[in-house]
Amino acid sequence: MFFFKKKENKISDFFSNSFVDIHSHLLPGLDDGASDLDESIQLIKKMSDLGIKNFITTPHVLGDIYQNSSTAIKEKLQKVKDELLKRNITNVSIDVAAEYMLDEQFSLLLEKNDILTLKDNYILVEMSYFNPPLNIFNILFEIQLKGYKPILAHPERYNFYHNDFEKFYKLKNAGCLFQLNLLSVSEYYGKNIQKISKKLLNLGMYDFVGTDLHNTKHLNHLESLLTDTNKEQLKLLLKNNSVVFEK
Fold first, then answer.
1. At what angle do helices 136-145 and 166-173 cross, to 10 degrees?
2. In this structure, is the dihedral angle defined by the CA atoms of residues 204, 221, 30 and 76, taken in order, positive or negative?
3. Strand order across the beta sheet in which 122-126 lies
4. Residue 10: which pLDDT band, with cuts at 50, 70 and 90?
5. What distance in Å separates the CA atoms of residue 116 and residue 99, rounded to the nearest whole number?
6. In what order do the strands lie in the sheet with 54-57?
7. How do 149-153 and 177-181 pair as beta strands?
8. Pick from 12, 53, 67, 69: most CB atoms within 10 A?
9. Which of the 8 DSSP states describes residue 99?
10. 199-218: per-residue pLDDT in tens?
């Protein structure tokens, strides 16, 4: 009699080799993500262990709080790349864009075409958690007029839209793509955000996913999400990340 050992599901099987994480905060000292170079490398290594090996990391560009210039962001990226090589970590690829708050500073950067894109003409943008810009649809129009495609980070986390679902449809109809935070499908940000994320998922309104990883706490919660059930529900979005952003 032959006994066949049941194949164990590996966490790293959740992501394909071509998957690209398009939302994270891995550059040191630029925002509320990695605080120093050592933490940057440790987060990247641990994410690699989970199967995420391709990154377009996205430091905040946010008014007076995170005044990160394109030059400063690129310089920090090079330091991380140099340190990865120094430590002989060669199984990951990392590039950079930014997560732009839709504020006056962003409008000025847009006017000057001083924008770090995820790839080609895709821009990752966000709104305040308190209220949307009064001219949100004008901003989206201006972004597209400049030839860019806006991807709205974690729409499920904007509580002011939760009871006005038509606004989500209006954003989509205005040409805004949606990026789901993987942690939102759990109760990490709260049950209400989990509920909205599931609703948006079931309606097929998301286009991409991202970890929005800032720290080890996020990493530990992310690991608990990597199940076969979630993989099945998210497989099209995971594939979209691979197809659109693969180098």
1. 20
2. negative
3. 60-61, 99-101, 122-126, 149-153, 177-181, 208-210
4. low
5. 9
6. 20-21, 54-57, 93-96
7. parallel
8. 53
9. E
10. 999 999 999 999 999 999 99
CA dist 112 and 209 (Å) reads 29
Q: Whole-model pTM?
A: 0.94
Beta-bridge partners for 98: none
Provide the greatest CA pair distance for the chain.
72
Which residue blocks in 58-182 are alpha helix, DSSP H? 70-86, 104-111, 136-145, 166-173
Compute the distance between CA of residue 216 and CA of residue 165 in angstroms, rounded to an integer: 33
E strands, the chain, in order:
20-21, 54-57, 60-61, 93-96, 99-101, 122-126, 149-153, 177-181, 208-210
- 105 band by pLDDT with thresholds 50, 70 and 90: very high
Which distant-in-sequence residues (6+ apart) come within 8 Å of 137 by Cβ?
170, 174
Helix (H, G, I), strand (E, B) or coil at 38: helix
Three-state secondary structure call for residue 35:
coil
Structural contact between residues 65 and 102, judged by C-beta atoms closer than 8 angstroms? no
| Alpha carbons 15 and 238: distance in angstroms, whole number | 7
> What distance in Å separates the CA atoms of residue 15 and residue 148, rounded to the nearest whole number?
28
CB 52 within 8 A of CB 222: no
Residue 88: CB partners within 8 Å, gap ≥ 6? none
Can you state the angle between helices 37-49 and 70-86, rounded to 10 degrees? 70
Backbone angles phi, psi at 114, to 5 degrees: -95, 70
The amino acid sitting at 25 is H
